[in-house]
Amino acid sequence: MQEKLSEKQVFNEIIRGYRIVINDRYQYKNLKEKYQLPNSFDAERVALFRNYFLDNLYPDIEKREELNDAFDSLDNYIKKPEKLLRLIIDSGSLIFKYGRHLPGISKAGIRALKSFVTANRFESKLVEKALEFQLAPPYKKEELDILIKSLSFKEIEEFIDSTKVLFETLNDRVMVKKIIEIVQYLINRMKKHPEVYSAVEIRGLEIGFEIIEQGNILFEQLPKADQEQIFDFVVKIERDVLEVLF
């Protein structure tokens, strides 16, 4: 009789397998065979984007536990954004600087944070399907394709859209700088009120801030003319990979 799979074991193996898939997908040689690459997307630049995904959205098992707690905390902010919005609106300096645009900027930041949670939720759905099918590890590309194909098209679309939203935010060079400033302000304010905001809540927002900030640094290294092109290109890669399964 086959031994029942443990959720933790499956989750860890899904993470390992998916990281290998992402690593292979964003190899310069593999991309060059399939696409007409933008001029600035050379082997070094491809490696930077690949490492951004692997370090921030799909980190290894050692970093995953902290990230999972952070994503759970971010999920609470997204479902109940009033807690963050109150802090922002109570800031005289931010209101003076951004005026009536402040709520819109804040919501754009929350949408960017949501993209991280959606990526994490996508992996959790793969774990659920592996347990349902009793599909044992290791999970190579073939096994992961089976699990992905078992999801609804709506779930796939949500995942694709989350990638698009993140890169849309990073591609809006003016907006992303405003978001970084506001999120940094929120973190500083929250740290002054530990009786209201827990360490986990603060760390969740800090990790979200770090992911946006690192993405901003990544985009700033691109020539201005290539930023929009790279955004479209990365979204196309992710959409092509998932749509070919359906």
Question: What about the largest sheet?
Answer: none
Structural class estimated from helices and strands: mainly alpha
DSSP, total strands: 0
Q: Helix count?
A: 12
The N- and C-terminal alpha carbons lie at a distance of: 33 Å
Q: How many discrete structural domains?
A: 1
Oligomer: single chain
Average pLDDT: 82
Low-pLDDT windows of residues: none
- Order of helical and strand elements: HHHHHHHHHHHH
Strand content: under 5%
- What integer value in Å does the Rg equal? 19 Å
Helical percentage: over 70%
In one word, what is the shape?
Answer: globular
List keywords for this structure.
single chain; 246 residues; mainly alpha; globular
Describe this structure in words.
It is a single chain. The protein is mainly α. The chain has one domain. The chain has helices spanning 7-25, 28-34, 43-57, 61-79, 82-89, 92-98, 102-133, 141-149, 153-171, 173-191, 199-220, 224-243. Helix 4 packs across helix 7 (102-133) and helix 10 (173-191) packs antiparallel against helix 11 (199-220).
Topology at a glance:
Elements: H1 7-25, H2 28-34, H3 43-57, H4 61-79, H5 82-89, H6 92-98, H7 102-133, H8 141-149, H9 153-171, H10 173-191, H11 199-220, H12 224-243
